[in-house]
């Protein structure tokens, strides 16, 4: 202990690259939109040698998707950048439904809460996709040397089916080409002008470097071999077409305009309403609240955004259903979209001088029939599902696709989990894509012209639809079915199973007190997305001597070799370069914080490292903190955990519940892990250096 | 309205530089520590052409100050980066006092709450000074082209007293020299090794560019002329010495070591305590809680830090008081400091392998007798006051010095406020520096060896001292006296003056709902530090027709020329390049949120700009939001504002209360502004271009 190393600790992990031979690249992500970047996050976090290519010259800066649902923000918290999102984003608490009243004048038909109190630390939020990409890119940068390669297109894709059976083989061959600035600058779409005309003054400072990438690429062609390939290349996915995976569904016959503007409107300017009628009318929407407005000639959706921007979704034209994938974009302009808004919200006014972004689209409700080829090539995000943007769900689904797929590919590539785990991607995410399209079909219909008699019921229909799909839309329920990573039928008897924990679902976030320093933290932040499975030991009230003994027995079982050959924490291959064990343990007890000590818990629950100290972040307490109204000591109660008995829960790397049991059920828990994790080879099998 | 400008809005303000002749520089800040950077923030924010020089080669990265008091975090919130601080920092809720018990063994003597619930959104927090500098530097960067010039020393300073009388003159001449890398690398202190040995791996990613500044400077000499100079050059201030300003006070006779380590200790490992005694002993401190530990051979202070670091303040030696400013540093090593800790906390253990930073110091309790020369040259931070670091107050006082001085110098330089306002810097901050030293004298004594008989009363003394100085220490009270920016005696009669608003003090932060979108926000964030004075119109319950009429009358008075020559909002010089008026108006009413409309308020309270839209951020509501437990509609009650009558308050650019009155008192309020702000010249006096 007399050797003092000054500053030996690394604040930022730089992965050590495995130098593969030549151009062989172990994994490949195509497309650096929301789903691609989420997958890339996991490669960075787990130290995987991957390449991420994108055909765009820069990241997105303005416009595009904006809706963020509570579950997505919970995931961002586990990734470490939720605070940046909330600092910039626009939040909403209510949604207003407007329609023609008795005299045909627009009136509020309903005011719906957009979310329920205390279901999540986060609410419905909007922030430009470009900013979300910024935060994920920064996180990738912090955790690795991975960088998105821009202006790169794919030219050929070959997949050798037989090689796919050998986990060590590289069955995928892709030809990549970096486009020259000349090729990039051929005008192909009016939309592109928004990006090419942007200057530093239009962007936040942390996006400036990305702007500088423009024109910096040199033409180059290369062939790479990969173990895995993830195609996150959007609605017209090149990867999907190469795999000849068809899509089901069709385009609708409605063309919509979207416009992000600084809106100048007296919509809901109630000056004209006599003061004594204020109580009747004053809760109506305005352009800083989410509003669905059905005028006499159509329905628009009003979405307040960050930086004072408001987005309008506006029906501009109908075309013959199913006749073509394309329509004549050139006739639709911001001026035309503006006129349509003016028509619909009349007699209120609508003007703008500043337009941040606009586009026009035809809703295609389509779903890819498959999402993988041999569990080596995967599709995610818009490459799998396209639908209307009006639910604010698209970016969330894509982010969550990438999040679900990313950890599985990263840990399979790392040799940490069994490759068959990759089958759960289709199992878990494809049904949600179907549910998304179903929801969209219902939802979009509510925006279409209705017969006069139906008008009164629109608000009711919307309210009913919102309620029906709420848990799905917010991401609070994902309905992940049984698999090797979701154990639905515990093998134990009448255990003290928490009433409100469901395998395959998230755990409801609460604020807990850290036992060592007393500070409250949301579970979404303390359960970091770092690639590890987590055992949550819900230890109950550890002041009780019987319970204390059970905890002691539990930790002995963890360390015991007798049950299953080797102790649980030393049984499985780690995440190379990151963690020796793919399993982390968190203890959450419910004794009063002041009556228990950090050191009361067995050392395996709070391990010591000479370079990082005791693991003070491992012991948590469900007790109230007078300094924090959200830390109220109700987690056990709301989770339905018995305070006397406690329980044992396994959380997957993406924070969904994988397994539940009694504190005694270490053998059953080990069977769960045996089904997912790769066991370490016996010591004799490890090749020794001669 | 038919001209649509695509993306005309700038997200980031780049100031337009006034090109002054040659080397004449309008303002100068020396020293880019906490107080210098805070002052520089205001230069950046108000578009002032300044230079910031620092003799260090890079910013600070590790060690140094760490304590952040609640008020400092409130200011950070108004500056826009509080979320970054809280994301990284370590917070505390309690402080533990330890001393020898009956058998001479260490026992807990007291457990004190470190702060009260609901007095601030923020608590006692620690984060390395280097990270705070990072956030302020980023904010300066976002708001301007100002950059800190490193490796620059000052060689001569001349001040021409007579020129100081002419506000337009440049009375200050300074010779600057940029040091070459060779000069910088001459070893002058063992402490410097920490900085020079740092690599990318030791730092967070956003500090990497700063590390790259090392060795990049070229020797250069220049002479600059300045209107103002702010000396934030530390305890041994060169500026102070040039001005021949003496300091009062002396060094104490105690030498302390400070060490930031990953501590491995079983301090408070209660395993040895029988379970049935747990309730008696288990609330004791450990090294993740702030603790004052008095062992048999001295008293140490234990401060948990970010990233698992713990800081220890350790008495290592005594020397003869007043005999010299210096002592032999070379004999004190991390190993020696460790031994002292081990002695004091015995029989508990203390070890470490990783040391992040350490230093040794002799407490000097000194205060400069003056803080300005001619209100043109100013001292701030450690240049004015030095004291022990044990209260976690030093960085706070320095930041708040710079914050107080910065807006005054910036707005005087901008021609927005009257130069005599600069006198209030000494008036407001010097008494606080004295109070700081007084507190420190009392506080430090509690850490010194005490006679055996006194031991039992130490905890009591500490508790009493904490309580006595709490409001001062947390920054909740600053006692700013009457001046041209603090009106203590309103000229009106028995007005509905809020019981809990005190001129010269902060307003207690609450969460309010934005009238337009319903989202809650802390007042600390919505009242931005952007250089403007703010009228808070506490409008009361505006559903009442009499009250509604009073608001109408108020806004008419704002726009009226009759009272004082020109309408209030058009009466004063703006902040050039930033704001046309130096006055901003916020309305906070207390009607139920759903029963009032944004557009119910007169347009002057929610002005329209074609490029940014209606000012939706100007109307706020003191009503509860079901989604936010902190937004509970109690601000009026806690502020002591009459819900029927409302009130009128002026908040200075630094968010201290400047003036209070009735909603009718627009003339009195105008007199307040006339005493601070520079009136616009009559139109005929504005020179016309020929």
Automatic annotation (TrEMBL), chains A, B:
The keyword Transmembrane applies. Residues 478-679 form the Phenol hydroxylase-like C-terminal dimerisation domain. PANTHER family: 2-MONOOXYGENASE, PUTATIVE (AFU_ORTHOLOGUE AFUA_1G13660)-RELATED, TRK SYSTEM POTASSIUM UPTAKE PROTEIN. It comes from Penicillium salamii. The chain crosses the membrane at residues 20-44. It comes from the Eukaryota. This is Phenol 2-monooxygenase. InterPro entries: FAD-bd, FAD/NAD-bd_sf, Phe_hydrox_C_dim_dom, PHOX_C_sf, RIFMO-like, Thioredoxin-like_sf. Belongs to the PheA/TfdB FAD monooxygenase family. SUPFAM superfamilies: FAD-linked reductases, C-terminal domain (SSF54373), FAD/NAD(P)-binding domain (SSF51905), Thioredoxin-like (SSF52833). The keyword DNA repair does not apply. Coiled coil: none annotated. Gene3D superfamilies: 3.40.30.20, D-Amino Acid Oxidase, subunit A, domain 2, FAD/NAD(P)-binding domain. GO terms for molecular function: FAD binding; oxidoreductase activity, acting on paired donors, with incorporation or reduction of molecular oxygen, NAD(P)H as one donor, and incorporation of one atom of oxygen. Residues 28-158, 214-439 form the FAD-binding domain. Keywords: FAD, Flavoprotein, Membrane, Oxidoreductase, Transmembrane, Transmembrane helix. The lineage of its organism: Eukaryota, Fungi, Dikarya, Ascomycota, Pezizomycotina.
């Amino acid at each position: 202990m007399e050797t003092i190393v000054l500053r030996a600790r690394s604040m930022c992990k730089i992965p050590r690259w495995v130098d593969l031979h030549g151009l062989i690249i172990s994994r490949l992500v195509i497309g650096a939109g929301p789903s691609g970047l989420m997958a890339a996050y996991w490669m960075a976090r787990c130290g995987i040698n991957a390449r991420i290519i994108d055909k765009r010259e820069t990241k997105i800066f303005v416009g595009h998707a904006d809706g963020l649902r509570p579950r997505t923000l919970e995931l961002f918290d586990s990734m470490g950048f939720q605070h940046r999102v909330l600092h910039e984003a626009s939040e909403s608490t209510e949604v207003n439904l407007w329609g023609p009243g008795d005299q045909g004048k627009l009136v509020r038909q309903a005011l719906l809460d957009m979310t329920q109190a205390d279901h999540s630390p986060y609410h419905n939020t909007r922030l430009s996709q470009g900013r979300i990409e910024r935060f994920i890119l920064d996180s990738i940068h912090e955790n690795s040397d991975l960088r998105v390669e821009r202006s790169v297109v794919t030219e050929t894709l070959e997949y050798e089916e037989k090689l796919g059976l050998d986990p060590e083989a590289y069955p995928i061959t892709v030809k990549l080409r970096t486009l020259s600035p000349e090729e990039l600058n051929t005008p192909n779409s009016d939309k592109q002008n928004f990006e090419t005309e942007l200057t530093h003054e239009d962007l936040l400072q942390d996006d400036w470097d990305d702007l500088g990438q423009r024109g910096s690429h040199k033409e180059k062609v290369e062939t790479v071999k990969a173990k895995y390939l993830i195609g996150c290349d959007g609605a017209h996915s090149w990867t999907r077409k190469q795999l000849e995976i068809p899509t089901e569904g069709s385009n609708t016959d409605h063309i919509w305009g979207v416009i992000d503007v600084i809106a100048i409107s007296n919509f809901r300017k109630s000056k004209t309403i006599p003061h004594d009628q204020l109580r009747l009318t004053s809760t109506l929407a305005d352009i800083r609240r989410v509003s669905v407005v059905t005028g006499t000639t159509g329905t628009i959706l009003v979405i307040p955004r960050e930086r004072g921007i408001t987005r309008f979704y506006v029906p501009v034209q109908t075309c013959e259903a199913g006749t073509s994938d394309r329509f004549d974009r050139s006739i639709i302009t911001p001026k035309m979209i503006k006129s349509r808004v003016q028509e619909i919200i009349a007699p209120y006014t609508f003007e703008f001088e500043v337009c941040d972004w606009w586009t026009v689209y035809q809703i295609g409700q389509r779903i890819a029939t498959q999402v993988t080829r041999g569990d080596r090539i995967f599709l995610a995000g818009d490459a799998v599902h396209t639908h209307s943007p009006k639910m604010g769900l698209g970016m969330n689904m894509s982010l969550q696709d990438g999040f679900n797929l990313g950890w599985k590919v990263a840990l399979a590539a790392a040799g940490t989990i069994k490759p068959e785990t990759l089958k759960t991607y289709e199992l878990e995410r494809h049904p949600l894509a179907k549910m998304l399209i179903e929801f969209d079909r219902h939802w979009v219909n509510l925006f279409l012209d209705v017969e006069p008699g139906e008008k009164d019921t629109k608000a009711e229909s919307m309210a009913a639809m919102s309620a029906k799909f709420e848990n799905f839309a917010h991401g609070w329920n994902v309905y992940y079915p049984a698999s090797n990573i979701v154990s639905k039928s515990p093998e134990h008897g009448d255990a003290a199973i928490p009433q409100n924990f469901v395998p395959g679902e998230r755990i409801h976030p609460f604020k807990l007190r850290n036992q060592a320093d007393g500070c409250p933290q949301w579970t979404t932040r303390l359960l970091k997305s770092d690639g590890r499975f987590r055992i949550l030991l819900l230890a109950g009230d550890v002041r009780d001597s019987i319970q204390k003994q059970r905890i002691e027995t539990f930790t002995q079982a963890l360390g015991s070799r007798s049950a299953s050959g080797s102790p649980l924490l030393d049984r499985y291959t780690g995440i190379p370069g990151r963690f020796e064990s793919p399993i982390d343990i968190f203890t959450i007890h419910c004794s009063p914080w002041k009556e228990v000590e950090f050191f009361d818990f067995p050392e395996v629950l709070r391990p010591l490292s000479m370079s990082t100290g005791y693991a003070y972040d491992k012991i948590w307490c469900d007790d109230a903190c007078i300094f924090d109204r959200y830390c109220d000591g109700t987690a056990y109660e709301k989770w339905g955990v018995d305070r006397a008995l406690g329980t044992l829960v396994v959380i997957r790397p993406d924070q969904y519940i994988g397994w539940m049991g009694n504190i005694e059920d270490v053998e059953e828990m080990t069977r769960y892990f045996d089904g997912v994790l790769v066991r370490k080879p016996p010591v004799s099998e490890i090749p020794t250096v001669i």
